[in-house]
Amino acid sequence: MVTSPRLRTEPDNSTTRLETTPARVTGDGSERGSLPGLSAGRAATITVESVSKWYGDIVAVSDVSFGVAPGVTALLGPNGAGKSTLLKMVAGLVSPSSGRILVAGHPPRGESADYRRLGLVPEQEEIYPFLTGREFVRLNALLQRLPKPDQATDDAIAMVEMGDAAGRPIGGYSKGMRQRIKVAAALVHDPEVLLLDEPLNGMDPVQRVRLIDLMKRLGERGKTVLVSSHVLVEVERFAESILVIVNGKLAAAGDYRTIRDRIDRHDHVIGILTDDPRRLAAVLVADTAIRSVRFDGPDRVIVETNDVRRCARIVPALARDHGIRLRGLQPADESLTSVFAYLTER
Prior knowledge:
Blueprint: E1 24-25, E2 31-32, E3 46-55, E4 58-68, E5 71-76, H1 83-91, E6 98-103, H2 112-116, E7 118-121, H3 133-143, H4 149-159, H5 175-187, E8 193-197, H6 205-220, E9 224-229, H7 232-235, E10 241-246, E11 249-255, H8 256-264, E12 268-274, H9 277-284, E13 290-295, E14 300-305, H10 308-321, E15 326-331, H11 337-345
Parallel strand pairs: 5-9, 5-10, 7-8, 8-9
Antiparallel strand pairs: 1-2, 3-4, 3-6, 10-11, 12-14, 12-15, 13-14
């Protein structure tokens, strides 16, 4: 085990400090042990140990340790929490200021074979608008020196169901289509580890369902899929386990249900788009799960609930029973700062 210097930070009340014991390296280069995020006996494909990253006086990530096993894991936290920095370090694009990261037992920054284990879908638009979707994916196949780049390109495009649009320039794609073609490029070399930074941003409901289904299928095939998100309600649909990052620190890690139970005890604010907000408000206010209802514009109702699961069930049901059309339901506080503050104070 390599001992790395730890960044010194002043104690505060906003996060929970996690201490871990050294992990045991197995014969296949993976690790087992008590790293946060790992269930008992599970081997880690991704190992992050005492990792910090700072830029001058700015601390982006502070003394973070966790392990990620095969399957789908969510890296959950508000915007600016350090999720993108962590993913870049795991991908080998950025070096930690201290600590170490291993992917399948190897540092991610090293030989070309180390990079081939990884596929990265960045949040930024790292695409060329003048290329067609097929050309963009094939370019990555060539960079990976695949023996059959054309076949690999076709297979990756088929996985994201972009065959009909693959011949069109990316500059004419919608945001959701650009996200899907980025996923195809990241999958073209069949990596062992797939890293996705806010991949569902900009996707319509149908596209989101398809990508979530793809992530789950990859996890079932034994791939290690690490997905960042700041939206609690979407994580439930694909993640087996969760790592919660707040202010650059690991606030919680483990089984989805355990963490969700803690989060559910916090009051949630949900925005509901509807064609008839006054009728919907009158129906909802009588339910015990609803603490308060207010209007936000001509077609939006803001609901505060202390039972988010019941609220998610009863809102569509009550709207249907009373003939009220819903157009959307999502967290009203996009940053979710209050929710994460609640979780880390427990």
